[in-house]
Amino acid sequence: MKSGTFSEQDRLDVEKAYKTLIQSVSQTMTRDEIDYISRAFDLCREKYADVLMDSGRPLLLHCLEVAQIAYSELGMKSKTVVSALLHNITRYTDVTIDQIKCQFGDRVALILNDLEKAMALDMTHISTQSDTFRKLFLSIIDDIRVVMLIIAHSIDSCRHLDDVDDMTDNQGLVYRKRLSRFFDQLKYIVIPIVHRLGLYNIKKIFEESVMMYENPVEYQQIKEKISISRVRQEENMADFLKPVRKGLVEEGIDANIKWRTKSIPSIFAKMKAQDVPFEQVYDLFAVRIIINNSKRADEKADCWKVYSIVTDLYQPNPKRLRDWITTPKASGYESLHTTVKYGDYWVEVQIRTQRMDDNAEKGTASHWLYKSGNDKRQTADEWLNQIREIMENADGRNDNNPLDDSRAKKGKTDKIFIITPQGDVKQLPVGSTILDFAFEVHTQVGSHCIGARVNGKMQPIRFELNNGDRVEIQTSKKQVPKADWLNYVTTEKSRSKIRRYLKDLEMKEAELGSAMFHRKLKNWKITFNDKIFNELLSYYDCESGIEFYHKIATEQIDLADTKAYILTLIDDAKDVHQDRVDDEAKKDKTVENKNDTINIGANIKGLAVKMAGCCNPIKGDDVFGFLSVAGTLTIHRNDCSNAKALRKRYPYRVVDVDWMGGDSSRAALKITAKDNFGMLSDITDVMKQMEINILDANMKTQNGLYEGRFVVQISSVNLLEQLIRKLRDLHGVTDVQRIDL
To answer: How far apart are CA 256 and CA 354, in angstroms?
Structure first.
């Protein structure tokens, strides 16, 4: 589009086109509907003042012509006519869809929004020949009137193709590129739709336009040959029709007869298919017999009666019989077709009633859309869904079968179509995210996806895509799939790819964990076996060895705890192996004395006592005793990580114990503090003042924090608690905890 100045002739043409439109719609529309259309024209006249198309034609005139076509040739009503007038207004002016909705209603706004999306599809890198693109084209349309407006727009474009001749070389080059895309859309999208709608006259216009563009020389040659042979054609057809007319009169059938030479594209297609010149194409003619005043109940019988008259006169080709009155086409087209031999020629004969012909001339879309009653909107939706279904079968194999109820009731597709930067179209389920699309493109693209530009705007991986979005995936080599990605995808393909990666990662980490574990076993000088391994799996609630080793690699299992538990298992196994009989005897003795409390350091007679290495209890801790079959009493803290398992599996070996006397024990502390100067000195000074011996110390700093691990010799839990309190009071100390050794 460009700015310019309307010539006086332009203004006259616009006024004439507007008057013609108003005169046309006045024949069928109410005063309110005419005012509705006038308001739309007034808005266009205001916004399109002196706006010219690239060809130099006023944009306002183009909109009026599209509106006229929509009404006069397609049978559309007021909302469609208004939409035709406004069909470029949000694209080339400052008028918004919300303003359209406010002034002209929700339905017109929806029609214009869908029309703009459909016509704005960038087909530079998209193959319009693909089934996927046809589905994409129709999937963004929610109202059949959008389809009808696209057809009307295409008709007007075909009627003004000569405008390109008036352009400069540069203008012409750009325009011809657009023409190429227009004819691709016409050939692979619009013509199949028009055919399925039964708009055969319009289909002829489109096919001739395509041929004039693609094969201009052949088109002109065939046109000239048809013109040269016109007199002979008329003579032949007069001879052919004379006995037919006589037969109709004798049977009392009132009918009109039309004939025509077949369309130039049809003849050209036969020449190519049969590999013959024009002179050897013998089925050049088509005759249409239209029966008048036939009652609806008698239509089929009347058509077959005419068929009998024709086939009694001329030999029919049984392979060319098409009965679309018994079983209409999916579009609603009804007619009886046959091809008969006349001299050296074959003549196609179409037999139909006036009602059938009216539908065939304009198609049945407008009749379906504007049926009276409350089912009008439902009928329009069903019709659009039928077109979608038919377009998925582009070869037309279902022409002879009516759409059954299950297909008619099927709602809008549950798929969306997403366009890559290269113009490829990917089909995904509704609700798919950027991550789904990335995995649809390629597994590696999905695995390294960090987001995408959707219609030029950056969005995160969980962003839900809409139909027709153009998506450019952004990746990073540092990005890898994570478990929470499963919450961001909807397709099974994406889920399986993420799960596969996580499983592979788990296997790799499990191998690392296995190496770590067995290296520790070697250092601990522990002999490992399947029985101990199964006990470990049960203890850590692991379903498999892979899960166990994975938890080790990811530090979900503390190997120090694992060592202590293994040693307990080994001690018990040795005791059982050495003296099973003594085990039963001691078990009975333990049961008898279970309620007796043993005082550590006083009334332990004949028992070897040791402090458990897994929790290192000290005097004052809440503890219990665990009696081994060898007679050793191991003291555990009640909060020991092994306590629960020991009490559950060997309740008969657990005895109550209490402290009485006893030597000092070891305890471990973890101290976290700010990494202040002299912090280590402050900590050790506190221990020195309390006369507490430090047995081991380990310190590290990271990110401004100091972390120390101290093993101290302590005589009681009370003394340990005092130490912890004093350490917590130190300036800079943030946390002090007792930990297991």
So the answer is: 9
| The pLDDT value given to residue 395 | 41
Nearest-angstrom CA–CA distance, 407 and 298: 30
Mean pLDDT of the 204-224 span: 88
- What is the maximal distance between C-alpha atoms in the chain? 136
Read off the amino acid at residue 505.
Answer: L
User: In b/e form, how buried is each residue of 573-603, taking b as 16+ CB within 10 angstroms?
Assistant: eebeeeeeeebeebeeebeeeeeeebebeee
Average pLDDT over residues 396-408: 34
Is the pLDDT assigned to residue 167 strictly greater than 70? no
- The torsion region of residue 704 among left (phi > 0), alpha (psi -120 to 50) and beta comes to left
CA angle, residues 448, 454, 457, in degrees to nearest 5: 105
The pLDDT tens digits of the residues spanning 239-253 come to: 999 999 999 999 999
Show Cβ contacts of residue 179 under 8 Å, excluding neighbours closer than 6 positions: 161, 164, 213
| C-beta separation of 179 from 157 below 8 A | no
Reference 668, options 617, 633, 624, 629; nearest CA is 617
Instruction: Taking each helix axis as running N to C, give the angle between helix 8-25 and helix 78-85, from 0 to 180 degrees, rounded to the nearest 10.
Output: 170
Give dist(CA 351, CA 337) in Å, integer. 6
Tell me the pLDDT tens digit for each residue of 659-669: 765 556 778 88
DSSP SS3 for 10: helix
One-letter amino acid at 365 equals A
Q: Using an 8 Å Cβ cutoff, are 391 and 138 in contact?
A: yes
Tokens found for residue 448: 């390294």
Tokens of 375: 């089912």
Do residues 185 and 128 lie in contact, with contact meaning Cβ atoms separated by under 8 Å? yes
**Phi and psi (nearest 5°) for 576?**
-65, -40
The pLDDT value given to residue 409: 35
What mean pLDDT, rounded, does the chain reach? 79
Dihedral angle at the C-alpha atoms of 105, 140, 330, 375, nearest 10 degrees? -30
pLDDT at 586: 47
- The pLDDT score that the predictor gives to residue 432 is 93
What's the CA gap between 154 and 422, in Å, rounded? 27
E strand residue ranges, 422-577: 425-429, 449-454, 457-459, 471-475
Q: Is the pTM of this model over 0.70?
A: no
On the question of pLDDT at 400 being above 60, the answer is no
Assign 375 a pLDDT band (cuts: 50, 70, 90).
Answer: very low
Residues whose CB is less than 8 angstroms from the CB of residue 737 and which lie 6 or more positions away in sequence, other chains included:
669, 670
Share of the chain above pLDDT 70, in %: 80
Residue 339 contacts residue 287 (beta carbons within 8 Å): no
Q: Can you say whether the dihedral through the CA atoms of 209, 214, 216, 219 is positive or negative?
A: negative
Q: What is the pLDDT of residue 449?
A: 94
Q: What's the pLDDT score for residue 420?
A: 82
Q: Please state, in angstroms and as integers, the Cα–Cα distance from residue 37 to each residue in 64, 82, 115, 367, 597, following that order.
A: 11, 5, 19, 21, 101
> Residue 529 CB: number of other CB atoms within 10 A?
11
